[in-house]
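User: My advisor, Dr. K., asked me to get a structural model of this assembly before our group meeting. I'm new to this, so sorry if the format is off. These are the inputs:
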Amino acid sequence: MSGNQAVDINPPNAQISINTNGSDWMWAAFALFMLSDLGMIAWMYMRHSAQRVLHVVPIIALSIMSVAYFSMAADLGSTPIVAEFYGNHHQVYAGDPATRAIWYARYIGWVLTMPLLVLEVLFTAAMSPTEVASTMFFQVVAFVSFLVGALVTSTYKWGYFVFAVASLVYVIVTLLGPGRNAAGLISDSVRSIFTRNVSVLAFLLFLYPIAWGLADGGNVITSDGEMVFYGVLDILLYICFLYGFVYQLRATDVCCFGFGPKTHKLITEKPVPAAAPAVAPAPEQIV
Amino acid sequence: MSGNQAVDINPPNAQISINTNGSDWMWAAFALFMLSDLGMIAWMYMRHSAQRVLHVVPIIALSIMSVAYFSMAADLGSTPIVAEFYGNHHQVYAGDPATRAIWYARYIGWVLTMPLLVLEVLFTAAMSPTEVASTMFFQVVAFVSFLVGALVTSTYKWGYFVFAVASLVYVIVTLLGPGRNAAGLISDSVRSIFTRNVSVLAFLLFLYPIAWGLADGGNVITSDGEMVFYGVLDILLYICFLYGFVYQLRATDVCCFGFGPKTHKLITEKPVPAAAPAVAPAPEQIV
Amino acid sequence: MSGNQAVDINPPNAQISINTNGSDWMWAAFALFMLSDLGMIAWMYMRHSAQRVLHVVPIIALSIMSVAYFSMAADLGSTPIVAEFYGNHHQVYAGDPATRAIWYARYIGWVLTMPLLVLEVLFTAAMSPTEVASTMFFQVVAFVSFLVGALVTSTYKWGYFVFAVASLVYVIVTLLGPGRNAAGLISDSVRSIFTRNVSVLAFLLFLYPIAWGLADGGNVITSDGEMVFYGVLDILLYICFLYGFVYQLRATDVCCFGFGPKTHKLITEKPVPAAAPAVAPAPEQIV
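Assistant: The format is fine. Below is the predicted structure of the whole assembly, which you can bring to the meeting.
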């Protein structure tokens, strides 16, 4: 009666679902997210208060992913959906019209945090708020479409898959095109950091549709395998990528992104109108 | 086995629901939304980059409505709810305690895009962000209330109808009162465009409660009729209205709305600190 | 057949749920929220248009809470969830594996309005938008976690309880630490108002986990008792606290919070370019 009892206490209600191995892995991933979250909070407080802005978004994202992984490790947050495909290359052990667990908790976490990744990256680009918001929005559309597609039992699920991939393409194109130009408006070093990181981000994001096609869409890999595939992607994206991104920007003053605290603005703004009348009459008086 | 098989593959689970005619019409409407979306994207890229801001919100709205119409055309996204009314003037063919399909996919699309219409219109008015956000919020409250009212089976649904109409009235009053004044602060021509378009918007918005009362609320018209009624309203609002609005503003510089890209700001801001030191040493030269 | 028939028309589907007394109390609370909402709207229009900003957020919050209380008074918006605990100190009248009504309508109202309370309070502090958004976000995380915990039947619900309390602690610490400092940047009187009100807010917020533990979590008090406990807290927080907060700031010019309407900005900005030519003719004086 010791060890991980999540699968016993909250039994799965789908025929194709995780077993204790999958739950063990998810507890490990949950611990990683939780520790990264606490580490990011500690790191934030070690920095000067004016430089903390870039740490806030990763903290939010890691907190939400921690809750999502806690839910999945506890074998909560899935719903049984009849799988579309059966046969030699698919999960057949459960009989023909079998249900597969669709982990909507995972999608809720993504819908809330994926746009935050885009926001974090675009903090370093001089784009207008409307463009930033629209890019975040299409990231939301992408993962909502993945969720709806996963919940649909018939072949129409691939229609949502197409919407999701098209939205992802829109996000990546915006980041690598106008986003990169806007990062170059700040400085050349920021542009090179931006380009390097967005390339990694784009590569990782395009692995998600592949995982989806093998797991929720095509019913090819087991639920435990799905947990490993998505879990490794999430750890690479939310922990390695975000820590690396913040680390590479550790020496960059966030004021160049327009994030100076309001107190700084008050100090720098006041001299400007004061200087204008003070300087303007100077030559005339001398003349 | 050819033609539109959506109703066969995803059979409706309510007794009063759409048949293939309704699904055909929804596929046509989906195609219209999709083409308008692509057309708006193409139009955006044909314009100067500084003028693209007004195109972003219509693109988001049309993308979401495309996904919603795809769902409804595929006969997905409805849930059976026992209708309140039966009898001579209502849908009687299904027997007395019959269920009617409530298309929640439609409401999800509205909840996400209706506030964007308000946002697009208020881009042209010099209102504070708090006022813009509150107007968008009441638009959300209106359509969430319509959704909850549609899902309630008892006569209490009309309580939510009252909340929804009251919220719509708040939105319209805000647009036509403070909104119109704020548009006048920008220029007289913007105010006349604003007044003309908001009048059309208000007229179309007030047809939605009528459609709701006949379809989801009163169970008077068929599900196919409901699809036509709502669909025509959506096409008028999301395609005709938005295209017309953006077209009327094609000659207006968006910088007058405060949307100048950050590059312009950087150019105009830099000379100010640069001028200060350049002028300061002037006395020295004189000395 | 007169009087409050909500419990008859919309019968509860859980074994432990409210009866007519609870519904009566909720109608009274609904009336209080509705009247406070209308009173706040009336108060807003009695003030100068530049001072209305602080009234907008309370109006939104009170409108949403009115709809939520209407739902609960009509005995709608609950779902039956098997309670975790039974026995001497818990609700036993319904037999052993009994279901308790979880009022998700209440949580939807909180998720939408609790961050608005934080926003209203932080209007008076000179914090960066990123910090304000992150504080609001953790308030959302707190009440979403309470909701998920209430919907989970097994002992894992207390995991979500821990997440919720940790998020609440983050919000309170941020308000009383950086928030109080940021309020002090505006003026000393604003800081003292901020400190006084945030202390009240923190005290009330920490009563919510206690109520949750007794009602949704521990199944100790009846559903009617739950309605009274939460209802009194909501009335204190959304009506007494918000009215008091706005009242204490009635004499403070909102322009010092950065909320001057754009018209004022235009008026105050124009003199600056106007001053330049005003100084230019200075040579005339010299001449």
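One thing worth pointing out at the meeting: Chain C has one domain: 7-256.

User: Perfect, thanks a lot.
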